[in-house]
Amino acid sequence: MTTPDIEGLDQLERAVLDEDVSLATALRRFLLIAGYAHQEELRAWALKQLDGYEVDEQVPGFRKVAATLVITLEPSTPGRPQPEDTRQISPNQLPQSVRDRDVGQHAPIRYGVREMEALIAMGWNLELRPPGSDEYLAEVTDELGHGSAVLSLYWRVRLTALQQVLDHIRTRLTQFVAEVRATMPPGQRNPSLDQIGSAAQQAFNITGGYGTTITIVAPSAKAAGGSTATASANEPVPTLPQPWWHRSSVIWSAIAATATIAGVIATVAVAK
After folding, report:
1. Tell me, what's the pLDDT at 142?
2. Beta bridge mates, 129
3. How far apart are the first and last CA of the chain?
4. d(CA 49, CA 246)
5. Please, are residues 99 and 72 in contact by the beta-carbon 8 Å criterion?
6. How much of the chain exceeds pLDDT 70, in percent?
7. What residue spans define the domains of the chain?
8. Residue 82's pLDDT is what?
């Protein structure tokens, strides 16, 4: 009995090469090919990029992006209305117990690709709170407050960091298509199971069968200035109608501006 060739490579190729096509669409096409080819590792990877990562899950290296640590302090003069004191800090200034929680100069990006595409379209940078940050604010206050309470600790993440995460995913999909094409002789229309498996090994460093870990490495993100949207990386999002939103582990807080994404109202804060 012969194994049928895998269809859908042409559609995937068009999707990954067209910057106007949502990366989520390309990932879904890739997910189908991985399913037809019985590539469980590729399916698992694609689903994580589509749905995002939960708070208790480790994110791959390319989703750990360069970020700035910031604290906000209560007003220094009680009774007088004034903006909160916001300071950029070094991870070395934090108590050792906080640094041991992996709070440093890189923030995990847990969003699914549709969420990242929506945030980029809005044009707001992000403030992401480290998981459990409310639990150790007293320790941070003792270390850095100098008489004032530390109200929050968060990562400031530029939108270009999200763009680099998306670009990395699109590049990996493109490499996968290129590796499959390289194994196909002239005249072959669709790839075989063996050709898909070979391309998976080359593009995603898959070296074994089911249960094999996929290793993907990306450069650190760089960014320019801009506005800011506030999000929390350690609290679940309430159930919402959008299929790409309900598994996210972030919430947005209202400060200055309101934006609507596919019927979901998110509130954002303009950085000053």
Report:
1. 86
2. 232
3. 66
4. 14
5. no
6. 70
7. 9-56+164-204, 61-161+221-268
8. 58
